[in-house]
Specification:
44% of the residues lie in helices and 24% in strands. The chain is of the alpha+beta class.
């Protein structure tokens, strides 16, 4: 059931039949999100209000009736201009989006099944009544607890329509340059040690750059500091543990937070919901 606190109502749905998609309903009045990042595609339907979200340093307005698309790994914030706003969000695994895009375009993946292609969108805010309706219909089926086959079919049809109308498959370009390689090494190290007390000296050693230089290039590449990136990784890991039913106190420890209250404050700041509410997803 929904939970309302501080003029906010947030609800989550996670479904074994739809393990690649998490669905969220949100209504906020006055709450503002800090810059953050998701490891999934974020596809949002704005039902009420007028917001502006910032992606990679540029602002993008979005209003009721529009669809917002945020690629995985893209730093963003999204807050209403004034008053309340209501939206539904789909967090979609990149593997599912790639698979749908490749199937629609006929692109053949490499033997390893990865790295050869990537789903892409020409616009991050979309006006399309039919796609909006298809995604809304899928969300309602999830909320109603429809049969797995019905939900799976609706999900495939809705996201396929989104990709057909507004997406494409593009070859994934390899990146070069010592600095970008250094950032990838640091991101990997943070992911492998998300519960540890990592120091800037540790990261400098991993990257092969000076601490000062690393801070500059990491923020330029990701939009976040290494600490902010680590915090986001910890929250993403905590969400997985909470979704599996782990006790909140255990999750706080496993995700590297000093105590449960610190974890709860950080989790709410990043997600707009408490850990307890997140665990209550239907």
């Amino acid at each position: 059931m929904p939970c309302a606190t501080d003029s906010a109502t947030v609800r989550f749905w996670r479904d074994e039949a739809l393990d690649a998609v998490e669905v969220r309903y949100s209504h906020f009045d006055g709450y503002r999100f800090p810059a953050h990042v998701h490891d999934t595609w974020s596809v949002g339907l704005v039902d009420e209000g007028h917001s502006v979200f910032r992606l990679s340093g540029r602002s993008q307005p979005v209003r009721a009736g529009q669809i917002a698309i945020i690629p995985p790994g893209m730093v963003h914030d999204c807050n209403p201009r004034e008053g309340a706003w209501t939206y539904r969000m789909f967090y979609v695994d990149d593997a599912l989006m790639r698979s749908l895009a490749c199937g629609l375009s006929g692109v053949q993946r490499d033997a390893a099944g990865s790295g050869a292609d990537v789903a892409a969108f020409d616009a991050l805010v979309i006006d399309d009544v039919e796609v909006f309706a298809a995604l809304s219909g899928f969300q309602r089926l999830v909320e109603q607890g429809a049969e797995p086959l019905v939900k799976r079919a609706a999900m495939t049809e809705a996201f396929s329509l989104l990709l057909l109308r507004h997406g494409s498959v593009r070859e994934e370009q390899g990146r070069s340059g010592d600095e970008r390689l250094a950032v990838r090494r640091v991101r990997g190290y943070l992911a492998d040690n998300l519960a540890e007390k990592v120091t800037l000296d540790d990261l400098a050693a991993v990257s092969g750059l000076s601490a000062c230089h690393l801070l500059r290039v990491f923020r330029a590449e990701t939009g976040l500091t290494p600490h902010q990136w680590q915090t986001q990784l910890r929250i993403n890991h905590a969400k997985q543990l909470l979704a599996g039913g782990a006790p909140i106190a255990d999750v706080a420890f496993a995700a590297g937070f000093t105590d449960q209250s610190h974890f709860t404050r950080t989790f709410r700041a990043v997600t707009g919901a408490t850990p307890r509410l997140y665990r209550m997803a239907e």
